[in-house]
Design a protein that fits this description.
alpha/beta, 8 helices, globular, glucosamine-6-phosphate deaminase activity, Glucosamine-6-phosphate deaminase, binds 2-amino-2-deoxy-6-O-phosphono-alpha-D-glucopyranose, 33% helix
């Protein structure tokens, strides 16, 4: 695992965007696995700037998103499809038909999940998977205790995740209780993983994920077994990892 420690959120975002840009430049038809949440927003902004400055094109890029709230329409402002459109897709030259987000309104969630697994396979697998991490160590919406062997599935969100995501909704009751998510198995099959973390409130989760035991109780801990992980964080989020003596680059 490579760990990059950035001075602050802006520097972390630039570093993450540089890594994604390098992937896009070296393989213009890459399959990018994309993530939502507050943490990657700065990296997406930087990618949009690079595109506008003429340094990057997404014309041949295909994307698959990690997850979607179950029950939200793609037009709902808090849906992850809406998030991706407004933070990235609407501002770059990616072809709409090449962007894929699970359908939160699917009548048959099991069928939607099976279709998504097939789609990822048909695309040839994920070249670079971007990830954030929840305070309880969740990745995508794989919550503590979920089986590591699962592919895309319907999940019931934990109280802690609902609490954490309440900030994006008017009221806690508005946060969907279920989501469709890629499973750990899909994520672990990605050829490269890029995780972004920011803020002191993530330090404990980051420490447990990368210095603790590999356990279902901390879903991100499985990444210790992936051969190509890059962790980019600001110094607050990485503080406990650094205290524990994990080597970091610039
Ligand atoms: C949500 C998403 C995750 C994301 C997590 C952390 O639960 N499903 O993919 O990593 O939030 O979000 P944030 O970056 O806002 O802390």
């Amino acid at each position: 695992m490579r760990v990059y420690c950035a001075e602050n959120y802006a520097a972390m975002s630039r570093r993450a965007a540089n890594i994604i840009s390098a992937q896009v430049i070296t393989k213009p038809d890459s399959v990018l696995g994309l993530a939502t949440g507050g943490t990657p927003v700065g990296a997406y902004q930087r990618l949009v700037e690079c595109y506008k400055e003429g340094d990057l094109s997404f014309a041949e890029i295909r994307s698959v998103n990690l997850d979607e709230y179950y029950g939200l329409s793609p037009r709902h402002e808090q849906s992850y499809r809406y998030f991706m459109q407004s933070n990235l897709f609407d501002h770059i030259d990616i072809k709409p038909e090449n962007t894929h987000v699970l359908n939160g309104l699917a009548k048959d969630p099991a069928e939607e999940c099976a279709k998504y697994n097939q789609l990822i396979e048909d695309l040839g697998g994920i070249d670079l998977q971007l990830l954030g991490m929840g305070h309880n160590g969740h990745i995508a919406f794989n919550e503590p205790g979920d089986d590591f062997g699962l592919e895309t599935h319907l999940v019931t969100l934990t109280e802690r995740t609902i609490e954490a995501n309440t900030r994006f909704f008017e009221r806690k009751e508005d946060v969907p209780r279920q989501a469709l998510t890629m499973g750990i198995k899909n994520i672990m099959r990605a050829r490269r993983i890029l995780m972004v973390v920011s803020g002191a409130d993530k330090a404990e989760a980051v420490y447990k994920a990368f210095c603790g035991r590999v356990t279902k109780e901390v879903p991100a801990s499985i990444l210790q077994l992936h051969p190509d992980v890059t962790l980019v964080g600001d110094k607050e989020a990485l503080s406990k990892l650094i205290e524990a003596g994990v080597a970091v680059c610039g």
